[in-house]
Design goal:
Length: 145
């Protein structure tokens, strides 16, 4: 059994330092059949989380992220059944301890994994996704890169 690993994250948000803890949960890397799986490294997972904080793609309890390679969105995980490549990360906060953890979000299977439209609009404005991809994500439809 692998133990979850916690790290401290420090980022700049609107010119101010923001600090929180982030936990890497092993069930999203150890092929647990009921969990989506990261296909990116721990460092890339951390970078995606930092990007979500820096761009304020979060509220008090949920955050949303993408994995960028040369400013282009890339897949970051696979679905529980291994049939869907996933391109969005969801981050969840334990508000009591300000501890976040994340997983590859499956917007096709779970409506709770669809990011708020305001974040998708920001991704569109940054040319990470197209209008067509944004519509598909909002409708819970498959979206290929």
């Amino acid at each position: 059994m692998t133990i979850a690993t916690r790290t401290q994250i420090n980022v700049q948000v609107d010119g101010q330092n923001k600090s929180c803890s982030y936990t890497y949960h092993p069930q999203h890397r150890d092929k647990t059949p009921t969990k989506s799986q990261w296909t990116i490294t721990y460092d890339e997972e951390s970078r995606s989380f930092c990007l979500s904080l820096e761009n304020q793609w979060n509220d008090d309890k949920n955050g949303w992220g993408v994995h960028l390679i040369n400013e282009t969105i890339s897949y970051l995980g696979i679905s529980q059944n291994g049939m869907q490549n996933l391109l969005i990360a969801k981050y969840v906060c334990d508000n009591v301890h300000n501890d976040w953890h994340g997983y590859p979000a499956n917007h096709i299977e779970y409506s709770r994994d669809i990011p708020p439209e305001k974040f998708l609009l920001d991704w569109k404005s940054k040319n990470y996704i197209t209008s067509a991809k944004m519509r598909k994500i909002l409708k819970g439809q498959p979206c290929n890169l």
